[in-house]
Amino acid sequence: MKEKKTAAFLTQAAIIAAIYVVLSLLTYQFSYLEIQCRVAEALCMTIFYTPAGVFGVFIGCLITNILGGHVIDMIFGSLATLIAALLTLPIANRIRAKHGSVLQIKHSLLIPIPTVIVNALIIPFVLYYGYGVTEFGSQTTTLGVLGLLAFSVFAGEMISCYVFGPILVTVLNRVRVTAKLDIKRD
Predict the structure, then answer these.
(1) Are 40 and 24 in contact, with CB atoms under 8 Å apart?
(2) What is the DSSP string of 91-149?
(3) pLDDT > 70 fraction of the chain, expressed in percent and rounded
(4) φ, ψ dihedrals at 25, nearest 5°
């Protein structure tokens, strides 16, 4: 039985990672650099449905950063995603324990908080030191550029998680309900 759970966990993580990579590559032009909206970050919602989402999102981010990022992004950008995912897991577990296995949209608003905050705090430094984004808008001072980068990353994460996240939740809830109905019929 443990082998089945391990295989299911690895399969779920691999699928989530693959979707993350594909979404990032399909939206490449706005998944990197100072003005970014990495749509794949909406996959943080999968952590509610399976703990494999933590590793799926992390591995997907790591592969995406290897394919198109700077070494600093590979390390610290991917670590930011892992930290956010690990902070999301207890939130997801608590919501599931209190409200059941179907994620309501109003509760889904709590899931991306770590993703938005952690990325807004870490990614500006990755952009500044890794990609050499030392000017942004009219800002040229380190603090000014980092502040604008933090705002930009925050805004992109908000769009990814709070526009595309609820769409993903709606789809996952329907798939989950349909799958349960099919299992009951068999």
Answers:
(1) yes
(2) HHHHHHHHH-SS--HHHHTTTTHHHHHHHHHHHHHIIIIIS----BTTB-SHHHHHHHH
(3) 94
(4) -75, -35
- Give which of 110, 105, 109, 120 is closest to 37, Cα–Cα: 120
Q: Which residues of 140-165 are buried (b: 16+ CB within 10 A; e: fewer)?
A: eeeeebbebbbebbbebbbbbbeebb
137: region left, alpha or beta (phi > 0 left; psi from -120 to 50 alpha) = left
Inform me whether the pLDDT recorded for 93 exceeds 50: yes
Strand partners, 139: 136
Q: What is the mean pLDDT of residues 127-150?
A: 92
Cα R_g (the chain), whole angstroms: 17
The hierarchical CATH code for the domain 2-185 is: 1.10.1760
Local confidence band at 97 (pLDDT 50, 70, 90 cut-offs): very high
Of 27, 33, 36, nearest to 135 (Cα)?
Answer: 33
Q: How confident is the model at residue 29 (pLDDT cuts 50, 70, 90)?
A: confident
Cβ proximity of 145 and 134 under 8 Å:
yes
pTM of the model: 0.88
